[in-house]
Amino acid sequence: MATVTFDRATRVYPGSDDPAVDQLDLQVEDGEFLVLVGPSGCGKSTSLRMLAGLEEVDSGRILIGDRDVTHAAPKDRDIAMVFQNYALYPHMTVADNMGFALKIAGLPKDEIRRRVEEAAAILDLEQFLDRKPKALSGGQRQRVAMGRAIVRQPQVFLMDEPLSNLDAKLRVQTRTQIAQLQRRLGVTTVYVTHDQVEAMTMGDRVAVLKDGLLQQVGSPRDLYDRPRNVFVAGFIGSPAMNLLELTAVDGGVRFGDTVHPVERSVLGEAGQNRVTVGVRPEDLLPSEHGLPLTVGVVEELGADAYVYGTTTVDGEEHPMIARVDGRRPPAKGDTLHVVPNPGHVHLFSTVDGHRLG
Amino acid sequence: MRTSKRYTTVALLPAMLLFAVVLVFPTGYVINLMFQRYSLTDVTGNRYVGVDNFARLAGEDRFWTAALNSIVFSGVSMAVSIPIGIGIALLIRRRLRGTSVLRALLIVPMVLAPLVVGAVFRFMFESGGFIDWLLGFVGLDVTPFLANPTTALVTVAVVDAWQWVPFVAIVTAAAMETLPREVLEAARLDGVNARQELWHFTLPMIRPLLALVALIRFMDSFREFDKIFIMTNGGPGTSSETLPIYLYRYAFQYYEMGYAAAVGFTMLVLISVISTVIVRWMRASQGVAQ
Amino acid sequence: MAARPSRRPVRAGLSRAVGYVLMVLVVLVAVVPLLLMLRVALTPAADWRSMPIDWFRAPFTGSFSQVLSDGFLGTLLNSFIIAVVTTVAVVLLSAIAGHALARMRSRHKENFLFFVLGTRMGPAVVFALPLYLLATKVQLVDTYVGIILVYIVYNLAFGIWMMHGFFLDVPAEVEEAGLMDGLSEWGVFWRVSLRMVVPGLIATATLVFILTWNEFFYAFVLTREDANPFTTTIPGYFGAFQVDWGQMFAASVLGVLPPVIFGVLVRRWLARGLSGGLVE
Ligand SMILES: Nc1ncnc2c1ncn2[C@@H]1O[C@H](COP(=O)(O)OP(=O)(O)O)[C@@H](O)[C@H]1O
Ligand SMILES: [Mg+2]
Fold first, then answer.
1. Furthest C-alpha separation in chain C
2. Which range is least confidently modeled, A96-105, A108-117, B6-15, C101-110?
3. Is residue A322 part of a domain?
4. More confident residue, A289 or A357
5. Going by C-beta distance under 8 Å and a sequence separation of 6 or more, which residues neighbour residue C241?
6. Does the ipTM exceed 0.90?
7. C248: number of CA atoms within 13 Å, CB side?
8. Cross-chain Cβ contact B1/A55 below 8 Å
């Protein structure tokens, strides 16, 4: 077991001017489950592959434990990886797939067999050990890929969107299983996904990436409650946070016909009289006053309902989502008024999107 | 997998070395030789003569005959083998009973040694031989195909086509199998008949492959030596003498190595030019296909 | 309109019948020359030209025994040694080079591939001359080494081109999984990638074996009586005034049998091989 450290690690693909991963600084604790999340193309896989040794590091360093592995070959890093399409060896049986690394490492046959069977028992794969990957379902293949990683008992697990080829239901099930398994084995894990729900439910900590730049690292709760910038605010949470550019007035921001009070010092940070105000759908409370919300679609979930509608700020229409009581949902075309829950308003600079206060 | 420079270098080295020894060297040798008068029978006059060999070649009627014969040979061989091959591919596509037997036996012509193919057809074309009997059987006139200067070349080209029709057929049939069935079925539902489907869907969709087939057929037929050598040896007279036969004579019978080298080089240039045209067409048709 | 449904089956039946007639015709045209060869090889000289051919007359074995006692088997053995060694060498070398090329990300790759393919279009007649002179100098005329070297290079281009294509189909991730499992680049090639292109290896091997077995011109120029494959013996049966068709075809039948059997056995892979891996 070990920690993992990215020390200003940078990757620029040949023929491209912008780094795919730009000076990534990240520390993963021993035994921690860290999720790298971000939209497609943000550099998640590249980061993971740099750690694996599959991609060159153009500048900066990567450490596993105290060891600098920046230029070490993949085989010398003691890392196991689960690939998005599983990358099973098609010409080997499930047992051989899982035991291959041990065989390369020169372990005795019965030891290999024992460890493969142990892993197979954990993953419920015992009856498939003699099959070729071709004869397995997607979910079974996924488990074989997991098995191949765990029999190795490596220092670090890497997983690159291992659930994205499963159907929705299986994905939710497997999500929990992987998280439980990781906690049980206690192996440091870096997990890549573009799905923020996956990130929030699985990770001890979550690192949000955008355009090759690390936006924020923290516990799921941190990210949800104190997003460091507009991007993280909008990316984390479902349905997404409402983000509106509003006018600052003396002592607060204008929220429809009300003023939401904000400390003067915080508004001062904005440097101008416009701020981006973020309020999660569940933090919009119905009121006599506030922003008018014209109901478009109502999504009823039983106890709750989500209202997807539009609001008008300074004569411009913006989409807005609010959670309301599921027993008394409004009808399409109605207009509600909402105000933010006072403790749960996020303010961001309109210039660079950073969090104010 | 991103491979290291070292891996690439080490992996390519053996092939590169072999190419250097057995290809680059001979090519250099040919280029050096073609500027010389270099005879093995009369070594006293051997010396560099600049482009004399090319001047001589340009003035030789027999060379131009051979060049023309080569083009006719390739043209006939391609023009016969490609359409018939496509036809057989369409027959295979119908999946009538026994198609697997057809496919298996279709292999036979192309795995035979071309020299042996030439020999057996020479036997069949002998006067009073199998072909004459066959023609008489279906009520056609008998012609001495190989002994007649006007028919010898074309006859050998048709034999060459016979050998490679299966190549065209098998490769085309395999390509047709990979075509998306839905497209063809959708076309059929839109009221497209079988012939329209062939012309407007199937053939255009396999055009890149057909271009490659044409390229391979061209290169193979243009350098064909064995069949001509054994069937007519270039005769009667020089009526079926193609460039390979012509080159063979000058190099290995008259031992005029310098001149032969010039002929060889000209041949390479000719093949490159025609191949480039076909590759262009291939690229263009790939653009169309995408 | 009313007549149509009743006419349809008739027309379909007719077209089916035409299909079968064509199939029989194609098969006949494809195999009759081979059968004819066998028939003449089993017929005494006096009856070679009697038409129509009596396909079922009792076999005459004189030509075969003559050919076998003339040392023809030695040339068959030569063909075998040369073709097998060439095939193994070409498949191995093409796999190694083809894999490296398939994983190469360089501008030079395209050029190299076209150079490689270009070497195949060089006609034997052009290269045979300098190769003959070279072989004479290094005393490799009429040796296995000499002719095999030439054949290896002659086939290597196509082999590399083909294997390159097959390796492109191997997913990069599976190779990377190999790296993660502790293999070196060579280990990945040998223990993972190569195992995944077995059909490609078979296709390449088939093609190289058949092409080498059937080659005539290089052998004609570069071998005499020690390393000469069977093809070089065929012209010898054509005398100045007459041809010993019986013996010539007896020799030919023995010579074409291995590739015919081999070809029919592995025909599944032949289409891929012949098209340079372009079709499945
Ligand atoms: N092999 C490559 N060559 C060049 N650019 C690449 C390569 N792989 C990825 N990229 C680019 O690098 C960026 C990050 O890619 P990646 O790490 O795969 O993103 P993610 O996994 O977050 O979707 C993207 O813009 C992508 O286009
Ligand atoms: Mg990715």
1. 84
2. C101-110
3. yes
4. A289
5. none
6. no
7. 24
8. no
Residue B39 lies in a domain: no
Question: What distance in Å separates the CA atoms of residue C186 and residue A167, rounded to the nearest whole number?
Answer: 37
Measure the CA–CA gap between A11 and A56, rounded to whole angstroms. Answer: 7
Which whole-number Å values give the CA distances from C4 to A273, B143, C12, in the listed order? 82, 47, 12
Pair A200, A271 in one domain: no
Q: What is the pLDDT of residue C3?
A: 45
Please indicate whether residue A43, judged by its CB atom, sits closer than 6 Å to ligand 1.
yes
- Written as six digits, the tokens of B119 are 């020999």
Other beta carbons less than 10 A from residue B4's beta carbon? 12
**In this complex, do C180 and A105 lie within 8 Å of one another by their Cβ atoms?**
no
Say which amino acid occupies C233: T
C-alpha C229/C-alpha C83 separation (Å) is: 9
Distance A20 CA to ligand 1 centre (A): 6
CB A353 within 8 A of CB A230: yes
Among the bound ligands, name the one nearest to the CA of residue A44: 1
Query: With a CB-CB cutoff of 8 Å, which residues 7-46 of chain A face chain C?
Result: 14
Contacts of residue B30 in chain C, CB cutoff 8 Å? 126-127, 129-130
Answer yes or no: is B36 within a domain. no
Nearest CA to ligand 1 atom 7: A13
Q: Check pocket membership of A21 for ligand 1, CB cut-off 6 A.
A: no
A110 and A69 fall within a common domain: yes
| pLDDT, mean of residues B193-211 | 83
Ligand 1 atom nearest to A42, measured from its CA? 22
Quote the minimal CA–CA distance from C131 to chain B in Å. Answer: 6
Q: Among residues of chain B, what percentage have pLDDT more than 90? A: 31
Min distance B171 CA to chain C CA atoms (Å): 5
Q: Does domain C65-274 have CATH number 3.20.20.140?
A: no
Q: Tell me the whole-structure pTM to 2 decimals.
A: 0.86
Range of the domain at A306: 239-349
d(CA A169, CA A175): 10
Residue in C124, C238, C280 nearest the CB of B225: C124
Q: Decide: C272 and C199 in contact? Cβ < 8 Å.
A: yes
List pLDDT tens digits, range A132-154.
999 999 999 999 999 999 999 99
For the CA of A39, the nearest atom of ligand 1: 22
Among residues A138, A140, A135, which one has the least CA distance to residue A91?
A: A135
| A88 contacts chain C (CB < 8 A) | yes
Cβ contacts (< 8 Å) between B275 and chain C: which residues?
Answer: 121
Number of domains in chain B: 1
**What subunits make at least 3 CB pairs under 8 angstroms with B?**
A, C
Residues in chain C: 280
Distance of CA A85 to the CA centre of its chain: 19
Beta-carbon separation of A87 and C192 below 8 A: no
Is the domain of A142 the same as that of A291? Answer: no
Tokens (6 digits) for B128 = 């009073």
Chain B residues with CB under 8 Å of C276 CB are 212, 216
Q: Kindly report the average pLDDT of chain C as a whole number.
A: 85
Q: Which of A81, A90, A105 sits opposite C180 (nearest CB)?
A: A81
The answer for residues whose C-beta is within 8 angstroms of residue A24's C-beta and 6 or more apart is A6, A8, A9, A10, A47, A60, A214
Residues 6+ apart with CB under 8 A from C76: C230, C254, C255
Give the nearest ligand 1 atom to A47 CA.
17
CA distance C170 to C193: 7
- Give CA–CA dist A111/A109, Å, rounded: 5
d(CA B131, CA B265): 38
Report the sign of the C-alpha dihedral through residues C16, C19, C25, C31, in that order. Answer: negative
To test the ligand 1 pocket, which listed residue (A10, A11, A12, A13) has its Cβ within 8 A of the most ligand atoms? A13
How many structural domains comprise chain A?
Answer: 2
